[in-house]
Automatic annotation (TrEMBL):
One of its GO terms (cellular component) is cytoplasm. SUPFAM superfamilies: Acyl-CoA N-acyltransferases (Nat). It is found in: Cytoplasm. Its main location: cytoplasm. This is Serotonin N-acetyltransferase.
Length: 205
């Protein structure tokens, strides 16, 4: 499940290098913009953004704090956070799944032998929404997955109003998802992560 506005699919941003002082010496400042995998220490910041994004819409969160910690301990390489000057502004959390389609068990399980990456949640901090950050982060995340040798495709479930957003990100709809949360129904979507043509062009991953 994901919480964001349907924004145009944007090209990735280029990270700026640390600022230099007039004398040419590099200051010890935080990077202006940084993408990195999340750690369990980021769990509280993740949950604060997620809670604000989802509670007002659906009354619940896709992942609770203990579940966030669970996934960030088991598979931190399947997460990605966007930090601006050290502050988390957007994130994605995923885990591995070993079946063709998502089931209710996929909400809480990580299947280490799986080749499908289940994207549990994408959320953007309320102060930086409507800036295309969701699209940029998804682009970066898919690039990240392509460098993981076990990842073959990405799966997610979303509400109907978010289908156009994910289609712009390259996902295709597979039809109604088997998973339900309360009265909410979802569309299941997938994106190929690795193909022969891509592997030839990107053999350095």
């Amino acid at each position: 499940m994901s919480a964001l506005s349907a924004l145009p699919f944007l090209k990735p941003v280029h990270l700026r290098s640390p600022r230099s002082s007039p004398g040419g010496q590099r200051r010890h400042t935080l990077p202006a913009s940084e993408f990195r995998c999340l750690s369990p220490e980021d769990a509280v910041s993740v949950f604060e953004i997620e809670r604000e994004a989802f509670i007002s819409v659906s009354g619940d969160c896709p992942l609770h704090l203990d579940e966030i910690r669970h996934f960030l301990n088991l598979c931190p390489e399947l997460s990605l956070g966007w930090f601006e000057e050290g502050r988390l502004v957007a994130f994605i959390i995923g885990s591995l799944w070993d079946q063709e389609r998502l089931s209710q068990a996929a909400l809480t399980l990580h299947k280490p032998q799986g080749s499908a990456v289940h994207i549990h949640v994408l959320a953007v901090h309320r102060t930086v929404r409507q800036q295309g950050k969701g699209s940029i982060l998804m682009w970066r995340y898919l690039q990240h997955l392509r460098c993981l040798p076990f990842a073959r495709r990405a799966l997610l479930m979303c509400e109907h109003f978010l289908v156009p957003f994910y289609q712009k990100c390259g996902f295709e709809a597979l039809g109604p998802c088997q998973v339900t949360v309360g009265e909410l129904a979802f569309v299941e979507m997938q994106h190929p992560v690795r193909g022969h043509a891509f592997m030839r062009r990107n053999s350095g991953c």
